[in-house]
């Protein structure tokens, strides 16, 4: 038995974290999720799979636009022509609603309802497979729907679980997405768990395989690296093997460069380009430059970075059809002295009082009403980055006394 | 640490100069440009290193100008540190210069790290901020108009470089507020937020403009169904119309078929199947033969034939053949007559010479003539002998004899010569002539020789004479007899030889004339014969002469020509007759061909008959073609219609129905195109995904702006918090000293400073009355600030043992206050060296001469 496990295709999704990109790049970006989807369709056909599982978030939006719907439909049509059934469950992004009518898809597409249900298919060799899953009916699913999944039916040869959700503890306050635990899944005795929702590809368990295939196309800086789908083969001894198939057309990546004292802009650019290397990329790269120890740099260089000049200069050095440097993330090194030794304890004491999400959110005031701002600064990691930025800003203003 | 001595090798304007310093308060007095700042920078530079050439610090390097005695860069600070004296020397070198430290007590050179130990945990900036005090610090403080700000400032003085930090904090806040404040509506960030919200709203609106997928689908399905129905009808009607049109197109043929059938109704079938071409060929042959016969007959009639006989023609030809001969004969006759005449003339000439008729005289025979010649010769010889004898007898001398004999011999020889010439003219036998000549020559020779041998004596001479004379007579007699016999006697003997010759010629001419006359006769006879033959053949001319021959020739030629023509005509008529016979046979055969039986006969009307049949046949062919072109079913269908008008009517009604349907189709298509157009127009003008992406980019921009704003805000917060915490942390340590200083510079007016929990500052005066800081005068606040500031400096004296450096502060103080400050500084300087740079004469006046260095004089 051979099938493709895909999730979080997020058709129609914009890319986050880019600014003022060229029309060319924007076109690539807009087309990317659709192209990734088409690749998955082609992969299914090329590999003559028995079926395809799409575990939630086929669409980025519960009200997809026409264009996006058309892309989805034509992909399904292709699979239909190839005689490949598609098991489709909707996730938190594309929960069941009348803006995604179920009758738009050809008959090979089997859509799960909000109730957990099991669909069976007889394979060409006569073996049978049961596929269990459900679709979200709203933006969140606080219930542990895993409880509704039946244990493996002994009458079928294989059983596969499709579940869009997070493995947060059931009692976690964050458990808005059909929470489950690893042992709950294992207890169902399935042959394979096709998970969705987490965009980072990861295998949670190997026997049976419980895995997130990750999303099919990275859409922001935190969805970096190669993205794709799982081509799963399960033999008669119920041994599953997973082959990863790349589907993404644009890759988010980051490179790390360590600043060195006395570095000027040219040297910094040279260091960045060294890190990039001159290997041509098969995919368009969106690169985040992480600049470590940036607080060691002279304020002049920091100025160039914060003004955007540095990014512009680096971009000039590469083929704009291959690479877009979308930002320089500056990180400060705590061990580099920034303040008078005499006052160190006071700076450190106050640091804790200032750089915490509560103070940050208070400071933001009504700006927090912007959902994306609220989301961004609920993240402690981002808060830590803010501290680095502040340090660098102070350094840039040349008040910290090295000269 | 205290600085005892400053020794400068070269630094800015200072060259090879030494300053000795007091361990307590040391004042450097100097007007502007006197070198105060240079000196202060020298102290910093020796302790912390020369300023680097980078950035804004360039002007702090003070590298001595070259050329001017070229002093070495740097110098020495002699210091006291932990009760030892050290010389800290800094000279030109890498990384801020080369430092060497020497223990002046022991002379031991210390390692460079020793300097770090002396300086403790401060860098130059910290040092400047911590132990430096200048007018601008005071000015900044005084600039705070708000009492609360003054209070806050005091509450934040407890960190290194508080004043600068406070300034920074303020500028960060200001900058942040320029971007955005809680209450702002039009600042950068506000505008961006507005832009973002508008884009968001537009995206939603644009999304709403699109009908949902399902309704589009349903609409499309409905119009598709309707379109299909209409198109089916169009198809059906189209087929019907095509059939009607086809019937109409075939109507003319159909009508023609009917017409032709009517026209051929009475025509026998055999006529339609007749091979007209074959028949036509036959008819043409007959016609041709007939006209040939006619022509032959006409040609025969044209031939003129006479009944002349064949043999006449032959005789004519014969006669014509003899014409050349007769012409020749006439020429011969003339010629012969001429020759005869000429011969007769010659013979008459000869007769005339002799003046005598010679017809009776005959030439001598050859024998006679030879006899004569011999006798004549003998006579001459005898005469000559007689003459010789007579001479001998007269002269008797031998010589004479010989002389005499010679002429006689010569005579003989000359005669012989003449004779021989004549002889050869005579028609004699050549042998005879030769003999004669030989004889003559021998006789001559004998005559010449004889006298020599016969020289007889005189006595015999007379005898001899007589003998000879007798002989001579006999010869003369013989000759005379010959003359008698031959008739020559009537001619002189001297002419006999010539006569003999003439006679011979004469005889010959006569004979030739005879012969010519015979020939003439014969020729004349021939001419006569010709004329007689001619007489039998042609009409004769009147004269039969040579002149008549030419016209006769012409006449004969004409007759011959006529005869020839006659012969040709005969031959021609024979051929014509033969051809005529053949053609008549052929005609008979042709006319009996059975193909002709279908016709009434071959005559002038035959062609017309053929043409009529041909027309029928063509009609029949057309009919067959038409019938083939019309299918049976079509014909069947056509038969249902009376006429084409009926068909046409049906066609036009179908056409109008079809047009209606097509219009409906177009309407549906238009509607659909309209829908699609609207949708695609919408799709073209509205790119949801693009808008969405741009919104996201706007979001990124906004995030970045907010991050920048937040950075400023949090930076200010951090500074504020740190200063506040530091101040609070350090206050308990400095309070005792601060109180003392405050008391001292207010001349004991205030005794105590207190900070309460709510960050309020209270001071108590000597009467025990307490004031909130806001209630104090500005001057008192300033004094408070200075007290705390110096207390703060003092508090670091354990960790930072460096001189306090004051750069022309207190300029606005009056004399009393300056005095108070100086008293305070002096008391501080007891423990911590104070170096005071000033350009103020007041300060100069206040100070002990011992404690002051006047830079103006250096
Ligand atoms: Mn997702």
TrEMBL record, chain A:
Instruction: Determine the domain of life of the protein's source.
Output: Bacteria
Keyword hit for ATP-binding? no
* Swiss-Prot/TrEMBL keywords: Exonuclease, Hydrolase, Nuclease
GO MF, one annotated term: exonuclease activity
Entry keyword annotation includes Hydrolase: yes
Q: Identify the InterPro entries for this entry.
A: Calcineurin-like_PHP, DNA_Repair-Maintenance_Comp, Metallo-depent_PP-like, Mre11_N, Pesterase_YhaO
Return the protein name.
DNA repair exonuclease
Species annotation = Pediococcus stilesii
UniProtKB/TrEMBL annotation, chain B:
Answer yes or no on keyword Transcription regulation. no
What positions belong to coiled-coil segments?
A: 186-236, 276-353, 458-526, 563-593, 647-708
Q: Where is the YhaN AAA domain?
A: 1-206
- What InterPro entries does this protein's entry cite? P-loop_NTPase, YhaN_AAA
A single Pfam family it belongs to is AAA_27
Query: What does the UniProt keyword field contain?
Result: Coiled coil
In its UniProt entry, what is this protein called?
DNA repair ATPase
* Provenance organism: Pediococcus stilesii
């Amino acid at each position: 038995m051979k099938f493709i496990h895909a999730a979080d295709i997020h058709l129609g999704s914009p890319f986050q974290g880019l600014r003022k990109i060229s029309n060319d790049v924007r076109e690539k970006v807009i087309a990317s999720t659709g192209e990734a989807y088409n690749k998955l369709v082609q992969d299914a056909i090329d590999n003559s799979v028995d079926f395809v599982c799409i575990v939630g978030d086929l669409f980025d939006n519960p009200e997809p636009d026409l264009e996006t719907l058309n892309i989805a439909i034509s992909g399904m049509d292709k699979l239909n022509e190839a005689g490949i059934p598609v098991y489709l469950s909707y996730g938190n992004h594309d929960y069941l609603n009348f803006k995604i009518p179920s009758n738009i898809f050809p008959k090979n597409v089997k859509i799960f309802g909000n109730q957990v249900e099991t669909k069976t298919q007889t394979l060409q060799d006569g073996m049978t497979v049961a596929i269990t899953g459900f679709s979200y009916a709203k933006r969140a699913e606080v219930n542990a729907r895993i409880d509704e999944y039946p244990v493996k039916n002994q009458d079928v040869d294989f059983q596969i679980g499709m579940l869009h959700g997070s493995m947060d503890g059931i009692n976690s306050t964050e458990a808005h997405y059909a929470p489950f635990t690893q042992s709950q899944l294992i207890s169902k005795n399935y042959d394979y768990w096709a998970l969705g929702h987490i965009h980072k590809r990861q295998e949670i368990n190997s026997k049976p395989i419980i895995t997130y295939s990750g999303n099919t196309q990275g859409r922001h800086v935190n969805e970096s690296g190669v993205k794709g789908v799982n081509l799963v083969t399960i033999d008669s001894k119920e041994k599953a093997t997973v082959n990863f198939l790349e589907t993404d057309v644009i890759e988010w990546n980051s490179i790390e460069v360590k600043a060195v004292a006395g570095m000027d802009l040219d040297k910094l650019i040279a260091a960045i380009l060294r890190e990039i290397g001159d290997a041509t990329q098969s995919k368009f790269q969106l690169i985040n430059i992480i600049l470590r120890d940036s607080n060691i740099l002279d304020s002049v260089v920091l100025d160039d970075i914060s003004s955007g000049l540095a990014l512009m200069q680096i971009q000039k050095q590469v083929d704009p059809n291959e690479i877009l440097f979308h930002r320089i993330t500056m990180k400060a090194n705590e061990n580099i002295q920034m303040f008078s030794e005499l006052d160190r304890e006071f700076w450190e004491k106050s640091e804790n009082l200032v750089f915490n999400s509560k103070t940050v959110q208070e400071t933001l005031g009504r700006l927090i009403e912007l959902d994306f701002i609220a989301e961004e600064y609920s993240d402690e990691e981002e808060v830590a980055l803010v501290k680095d930025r502040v340090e660098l800003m102070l350094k840039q203003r040349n008040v910290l006394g090295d000269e | 640490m205290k600085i005892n001595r400053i020794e400068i090798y070269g630094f800015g304007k200072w060259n090879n100069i030494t300053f000795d310093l007091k361990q307590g308060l040391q004042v450097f007095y100097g007007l502007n440009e006197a070198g105060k700042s240079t000196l202060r920078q020298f102290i910093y530079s020796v302790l912390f290193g020369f300023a680097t050439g980078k950035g804004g610090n360039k002007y702090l390097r003070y590298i001595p100008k070259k050329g001017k005695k070229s002093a070495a860069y740097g110098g020495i600070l002699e210091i006291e540190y932990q009760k030892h004296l050290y010389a800290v020397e800094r000279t030109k070198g890498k990384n801020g210069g080369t430092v060497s430290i020497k223990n002046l007590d022991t002379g031991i050179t210390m390692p460079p790290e020793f300097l770090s130990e002396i300086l403790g945990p401060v860098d130059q900036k910290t040092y400047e901020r911590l132990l430096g005090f200048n007018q601008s610090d005071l000015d900044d403080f005084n600039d705070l108009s708000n009492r609360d700000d003054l209070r806050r400032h005091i509450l934040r003085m407890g960190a290194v470089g508080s004043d600068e930090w406070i300034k920074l904090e303020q500028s960060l806040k200001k900058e942040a507020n320029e971007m955005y404040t809680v209450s702002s509506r039009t600042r950068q960030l506000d505008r961006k937020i507005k832009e973002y919200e508008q884009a968001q709203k537009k995206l939603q609106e644009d999304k709403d403009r699109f009908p949902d997928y399902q309704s589009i689908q349903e609409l499309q399905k409905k119009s598709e169904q309707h379109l299909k129905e209409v198109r089916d009808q169009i198809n059906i009607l189209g087929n019907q119309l095509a059939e009607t049109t086809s019937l109409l197109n075939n109507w003319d043929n159909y009508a023609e078929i009917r017409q032709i059938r009517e026209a051929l109704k009475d025509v026998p079938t055999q006529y339609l199947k007749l091979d007209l071409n074959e028949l036509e060929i036959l008819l043409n042959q007959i016609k041709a033969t007939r006209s040939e016969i006619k022509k032959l007959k006409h040609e025969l009639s044209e031939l003129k034939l006479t009944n002349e006989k064949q043999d006449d023609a032959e005789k004519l030809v014969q006669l014509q053949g003899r014409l050349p001969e007769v012409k020749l004969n006439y020429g011969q006759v003339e010629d012969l007559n001429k020759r005869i005449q000429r011969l007769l003339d010659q013979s008459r000439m000869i007769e005339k010479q002799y003046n005598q008729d010679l017809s009776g005289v005959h030439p001598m025979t050859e024998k006679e003539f030879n006899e004569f010649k011999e006798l004549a010769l003998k006579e001459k010889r005898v005469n000559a002998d007689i003459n010789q004898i007579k001479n001998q007898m007269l002269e008797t001398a031998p010589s004479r004899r010989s002389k005499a004999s010679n002429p006689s011999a010569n005579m003989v020889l000359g005669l012989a010569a003449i004779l021989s010439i004549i002889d050869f003219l005579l028609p004699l036998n050549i042998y005879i002539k030769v003999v004669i000549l030989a004889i003559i020559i021998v006789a001559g020779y004998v005559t010449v020789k004889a006298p020599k041998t016969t020289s007889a004596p005189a006595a015999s001479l007379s005898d001899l004479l007589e003998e000879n004379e007798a002989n001579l007579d006999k010869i003369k007699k013989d000759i005379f007899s010959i003359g008698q016999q031959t008739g020559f006697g009537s001619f002189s003997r001297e002419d006999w030889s010539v006569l003999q010759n003439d006679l011979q010629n004469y005889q010959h001419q006569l004979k030739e004339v005879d012969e010519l006359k015979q020939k003439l006769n014969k020729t004349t006879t021939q001419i006569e014969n010709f004329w007689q033959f001619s007489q039998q053949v042609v009409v004769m001319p009147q004269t039969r002469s040579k002149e008549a021959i030419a016209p006769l020739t012409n006449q004969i030629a004409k007759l011959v020509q006529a005869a020839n023509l006659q012969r040709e005509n005969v031959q021609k008529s024979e051929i014509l007759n033969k051809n005529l016979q053949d053609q008549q046979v052929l005609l008979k055969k042709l006319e009996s061909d059975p193909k002709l039986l279908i016709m009434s006969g071959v005559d002038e009307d035959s062609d017309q008959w053929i043409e009529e049949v041909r027309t029928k046949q063509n009609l029949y062919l057309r009919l067959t073609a038409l019938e083939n072109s019309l299918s049976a079913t079509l014909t069947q269908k056509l038969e249902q219609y009376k006429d084409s008008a009926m068909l046409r009517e049906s066609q036009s009604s179908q056409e109008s129905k079809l047009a209606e349907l097509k219009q409906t189709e177009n309407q549906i298509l238009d509607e659909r195109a309209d829908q699609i157009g609207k949708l695609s127009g919408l799709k073209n003008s509205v790119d949801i995904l693009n808008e969405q992406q741009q919104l996201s980019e706007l979001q990124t921009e906004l995030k970045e702006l907010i991050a920048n704003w937040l950075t400023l805000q949090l930076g200010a917060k951090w500074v504020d918090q740190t200063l506040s915490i530091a101040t609070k942390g350090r206050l308990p340590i400095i309070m005792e000293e601060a109180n003392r200083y405050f008391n001292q510079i207010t001349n004991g007016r205030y005794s105590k400073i207190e900070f309460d929990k709510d960050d309020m500052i209270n001071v108590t005066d000597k009467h025990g009355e307490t004031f909130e800081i806001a209630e104090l005068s500005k001057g008192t606040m300033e004094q408070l600030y200075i007290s705390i500031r110096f207390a703060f400096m003092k508090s670091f004296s354990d960790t930072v043992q460096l001189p306090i450096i004051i750069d022309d502060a207190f300029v606005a103080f009056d004399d009393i206050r300056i005095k108070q400050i100086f008293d305070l500084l002096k008391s501080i300087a007891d423990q911590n060296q104070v170096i005071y740079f000033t350009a103020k004469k007041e300060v100069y006046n206040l100070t002990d001469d011992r404690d002051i260095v006047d830079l103006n004089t250096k």
